[in-house]
């Protein structure tokens, strides 16, 4: 899932000079590792979210006698997905601060 414009090579002194970044190779290498790790983690979170959405997708014929979905199941599904989204936001925010 790597896009064509994403650079997976560690930064070189020439690329750092072009971008104006500091020329500390160890610090730049660690930043590169964290950036790639964060990108992979975001891909994993997106994949997990898609799987959870598919898992909790209601079957096509599942209706109550009134013709609407069960309100309890709807609220349960909504609160579960909301808690997953909050967890993802907290993890990403903490990863960016680190």
Describe the protein in words.
This protein is an all-alpha fold and 98 residues long. It has one domain. Helix content is 66%, strand content 0%. The chain is built from three helices and no strands. It has helices at residues 13-19, 25-55, 71-97. The longest helix has 31 residues, at 25-55. The two termini are 24 Å apart. The mean pLDDT is 75.
Topology of this structure?
Layout: H1 13-19, H2 25-55, H3 71-97
Helix pairs in contact: 2-3
Question: What structural class do helix, strand and pairing data support?
Answer: mainly alpha
Q: What multimeric state do the chains show?
A: single chain
| Main sheet characteristics | none
Average pLDDT taken over every residue: 75
| SSE pattern, N- to C-terminal | HHH
> Treating each run of at least 4 consecutive H or I residues as one helix, how many helices?
3
Short summary:
The chain is mainly α and 98 residues long.
Can you tag this structure with a few keywords?
98 residues, mainly alpha
């Amino acid at each position: 899932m790597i896009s064509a414009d994403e650079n997976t090579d560690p930064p070189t002194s020439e690329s750092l000079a072009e971008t104006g970044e500091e020329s500390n190779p160890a610090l730049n290498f660690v930043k590169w590792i964290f950036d790639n790790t964060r990108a992979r983690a975001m891909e994993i979170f997106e994949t997990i979210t898609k799987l959870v959405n598919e898992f909790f997708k209601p079957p096509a014929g599942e209706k109550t006698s009134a013709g609407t979905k069960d309100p309890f199941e709807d609220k349960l599904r909504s609160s579960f997905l909301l808690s997953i989204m909050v967890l993802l936001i907290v993890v990403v925010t903490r990863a960016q601060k680190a």
